[in-house]
Design a protein that fits this description.
Pfam families: Hydant_A_C (PF19278), Hydant_A_N (PF05378), Hydantoinase_A (PF01968). This protein has 682 residues and is an alpha+beta fold. The protein contains 19 helices and 35 strands. The strands form nine sheets. Strands 13, 14, 15, 20, 23, 24, 31, 34 and 35 form a nine-stranded mixed beta sheet that branches. Strand 9 (154-158), helix 6 (167-180) and strand 10 (185-187) form a beta-alpha-beta unit.
């Protein structure tokens, strides 16, 4: 089994052969991203693999940087600016700021499609599906001729209320193909047949952009793997880390936009099962950001949509993940008040941190950690990068701040850590939990280096560093099933009179999925759910489970009770007296896949700690320089402990054990960092 997580800085590749995990890390190439995937497959030998599971930030990074293809957008007359206006919400940081203003226009608003390529056509369908104004074909043709002269590569179509009646969108698609030829076209009634036109529009626009970006990419990966002798199944992961055959993923590629972070959370679930830790905080510290998720009772939280950036909403099932701009590549700068600040800008893969020696001149968190002595300059990323501390030192010296060099480095590290701690606290509190009752899984290339400081700041139970933490998300791609899904929107009260209509919606979706995928109903698990809300609410509680069996007037009370239980789990509140309205109905066909399972290495021997391989000075930290022992992680057996301050190195990651902490190796290859007792310290 192969799992590949394509990040902005590195492409992480994991292979499981005969129960043994093999890993490699390949520098990502933004100009030719599939080359890193194929190089990783070549290094580990993909020929005999049964599956090749893939996740990528290719599309996500393109949206964030607006490196996007040229597309046209067609909507109902008078609504062309919906992509610019969004939902009219304020961001969290603007809630109490009376001076906050939304940025409009192509220059400041950065809409996905510039205004001259957004065209409004004469037509109107009402909320009940009736036609108020027929589609005026001559008017539509005139707008399409404009898009043709502008040489758009694809077209997204989102007409008002088309999720109820798609007739006009279907007509417009046929006309667009007549005028523009066989270019890719996405229509909202097929891509995201749900209410709320802005969310439907942004999802449809991103879907068509992802089709343009992933079509050749996916075919090149498939062809390249076949040339290496691979004859297994190529799957792409979606935003919940569920696997989808690559051809199916290309039908609606917006669903694979945020797969990498979701794969990390899935990997935490699998590790938690092995460790019998059902409550975990997941923290993936990458090059640009830290992604935080919560696992409670062995399950992640799933949302019915997510934001790529403020008010850019994608209507796709996704693992509930929050991000903060503090990663290894986050740039250190000086604020207008003269304070050190970390992120959200990142040095990226190229030129990367100053210490990479690729021409970077701005200091980053990685530069700070290298100067503090946490990293081995001669053996970074399997020796693929030789760290040069001179450019890192100059980058910090060039900061315009009334601080000593030592303060600049130390404060950069501390602020990055506290930014992450604040986000972890916010995630836990929003879910009504106490972070002191959770252990935190530290992964991502920079996670084990930065996150041990949170043990003291947040008083967590422990910090768990999994095996191969730098490639932990890629391992999560080998921990999920293949899933085919569909959804439909219809506002229906959970009342006896609507039981028959609800049953028909689910049955029709199940039948269509089975026919489309050719699945054998006896060999797949059919999961049904709905998004519901209390009457009067304007937002939904997603993914309320619907049990198997017929839906009748007698079984509806069970659905209502399931809704209230899920509502309480998410919000720590319960309002059983308020009626429930279903909004979106969902069906998933789950095909069980072979999963990676953790195996215990034997009983802990609890012997003395191994001898350190060497010692290395740690500077600029807590006002002192410490000659810290450096251990090879492979030398620490189950039950053995290492007291901090210490550094634990492995091929692709570094774990920092701070003073007052101890790291104990577990039976599944994990390291568990806890506060050392007075007896242990003595």
């Amino acid at each position: 089994m192969f799992g590949v997580d394509v990040g902005g800085t590195f492409t992480d590749v994991v292979a499981v052969k005969d129960g043994k995990v093999q890993v490699t890390k390949v520098p990502s190439n933004p100009q030719d991203p599939q080359s890193a995937v194929l190089e990783g497959a070549r290094r580990l030998g993909v020929a005999d693999s049964a599956v090749f599971n893939h996740a990528s930030t290719k599309g996500l990074n393109a949206i964030l940087t607006r490196s996007l293809p040229k597309i046209g957008f067609l909507t109902t007359h008078g609504h062309r600016d919906m992509l610019d206006a969004g939902r009219g919400w304020r961001p969290f940081e603007g809630q109490l700021n009376p001076h906050w203003r939304r940025s409009f226009g192509d220059a400041k608003g950065r809409p996905l499609v510039p205004r001259y390529l957004r065209r409004g056509v004469a037509e109107r369908i009402l909320a009940d599906g009736s036609v108020h104004q027929a589609l005026e074909l001559d008017d539509a043709r005139r707008h399409l001729e404009v898009l043709k002269r502008c040489e758009v590569e694809a077209v997204a179509i989102c007409l008002i209320n088309s999720y109820v009646n798609p007739a006009h969108e279907l007509q417009l698609r046929d006309l667009a193909r007549e005028v523009l030829g066989e270019i890719p076209i996405s229509i909202s009634s097929e891509t995201s047949p749900r209410s709320r036109e802005y969310t439907r529009a942004s999802t449809t626009v991103i879907d068509i952009m992802m089709k343009l970006m992933y079509e050749d990419y996916a075919h090149d990966i498939n062809t390249g793997l076949q040339e290496q002798g691979f004859n297994g199944k190529l799957n792409f992961a979606d935003c919940t880390a569920s696997l989808v055959p690559w051809q199916e993923a290309l039908r609606h590629p917006y669903r694979i936009l945020f797969a990498g972070p979701a794969a990390g959370a899935a990997s935490c679930v699998q590790l938690g099962k092995a460790l019998q830790e059902p409550n975990l905080i997941c923290a993936d510290v990458g090059g640009t950001s830290t992604d935080v998720a919560l696992i409670e009772a062995g399950e992640t939280f799933t949302n019915d949509s997510f934001e790529v950036e403020f008010d850019m909403v994608i209507s796709a099932l996704s693992t509930d993940i929050s991000s903060v701009g503090a990663g290894g590549g986050s740039i250190i700068s000086i604020s207008s008040t003269g304070d050190i600040q970390v992120g959200p800008e990142s040095a990226g893969a190229y030129p990367g941190p100053a210490c990479y020696g690729r021409g970077g001149t701005l200091p980053t968190v990685t530069d700070a950690c290298a100067l503090m002595g946490f990293l081995n300059p001669k053996d970074f990323a399997e020796g693929q990068i030789q760290l040069d501390l001179a450019p890192a030192r100059k980058a910090f010296e060039d900061l315009d701040a009334p601080l000593s060099f030592e303060q600049r480095v130390s404060y950069a590290y501390r602020i990055a850590v506290h930014n992450i701690a604040e986000e972890v606290t916010n995630v836990a509190i929003r879910k009504g939990t106490d972070p002191r009752e959770f252990s935190l899984v530290a992964y991502g290339s920079a996670g084990p280096m930065l996150l041990p400081a949170l043990l003291e700041i947040l008083q967590l139970k422990s910090i768990i560093v999994p095996p191969n933490p730098g490639l932990f998300s890629a391992l999560g791609l080998l921990s999920t099933d293949t899933v085919f899904s569909d959804s439909r929107t219809k506002y229906l009260a959970l009342a006896p009179d609507n039981a028959g209509e609800i049953r028909e919606i689910f049955e029709s979706m199940e039948q269509e999925l089975i026919e489309r995928t050719g699945a054998d109903p006896s060999r797949v698990l059919i999961q049904r759910s709905f998004d519901g809300r209390l009457y009067g609410q304007s937002w939904e509680t997603p993914f309320v489970e619907v049990p198997a069996g017929p839906i009748t007037a007698e079984t509806l009370p069970g659905l209502i009770e399931s809704f209230h239980q899920e509502y309480k789990r998410r919000n720590s509140l319960n309002f059983p007296a308020i009626p429930v309205q279903a909004v979106t109905f969902r069906v998933q066909l789950v095909v069980e896949a072979e999963r990676f399972e953790y195996t215990a290495s034997g009983a802990p021997n609890g012997g003395p700690a191994p001898e350190p391989a060497t010692h290395r000075p740690i500077s600029y930290f807590r006002g002192e320089t410490v000659n810290a022992p450096v251990y090879d992680r492979a030398s620490i057996g189950p039950g053995q402990s290492v007291l901090g301050p210490a550094i634990i190195e492995e091929e692709l990651c570094t774990t920092v054990v701070l003073r007052g902490q101890q790291a104990t190796a577990g039976r599944f290859g994990e390291l568990r960092l806890t506060a050392a007792s007075d007896q242990e310290l003595s």
